[in-house]
Amino acid sequence: MSMKLENIVSAVTEAQTKSKKRKFEEAIEVIVNLKGIDLKKGGKQLNVDVTLPHAVGEGMKVSIIGSGNFAFRAREAGATRVLEPEDVERLETDKDAAKALAEEMSFFIAQADLMPLVGRVMGPYLGPRGKMPRPVPPNADLKALLSEFSSSVKLRMRKSLVIQAKVGKRKMDSKQVAENIQAVVGALERNLDRGMQNIDEIFTKTTMGPAIKIEM
Fold first, then answer.
1. Which residues form the domain of 202?
2. Which CATH number characterizes residue 84's domain?
3. Is the pLDDT at 197 greater than 60, yes or no?
């Protein structure tokens, strides 16, 4: 069952209108309440990256892990942070730095042949957060990957039946935000065991504004 775009546009417009003007630019979020999943009995936990049709942009911090020319190209491509093998090895004895890195970065990309090192050192910090790196070959197009991640959001469910994701900015066109929400809902429909039957309610809101229900 696909949601009607006009219903989403209407809710986004209402959320934009009802939120008071702030001294900062608010994000627009989608909140999805799920049902019919018993997490205590091994219900499916979700960890899905979704590429949105319209980039949300700032705030997506991507760390690239690699060596030699790969690391050089990562810096040229504009990665938020580039880690070489010796940087990863230093994290093995600096747990606070490893935790801080895992919290700060939105996504990780790693040169494929370095994944054993990355898994051993950083796995305990990235795994529980659903942020294990995407392994890529040495000749990967890093600029294209960074562009993809700048338009991506992570949908993650672990301890509660709620999915929350940033899908736009208050100044964005309401139709563009609505299409991003539609992409999120579509990804959930594809990845939940019972599809839309596992979705209870969907809301949208600005960062500090009231939650507006989207008619399904």
1. 5-56+151-213
2. 3.40.50.790
3. yes
Q: Final residue of a domain: which of 113, 134, 149?
A: 149
Total domains, the chain: 2
The model's pLDDT over 167-183, given as tens digits with 9 standing for 90+, comes to 998 889 999 999 999 99
- CATH of residue 193's domain is 3.30.190.20
Is pTM beyond 0.85? Reply is no
**Torsion sign (Cα): 143, 144, 145, 151:** positive
Instruction: Say whether pLDDT at 44 is over 70.
Output: no
- DSSP string computed for 149-207: HHTEEEEEESSSSEEEEEEEETTS-HHHHHHHHHHHHHHHHHHSTTGGGGEEEEEEEET
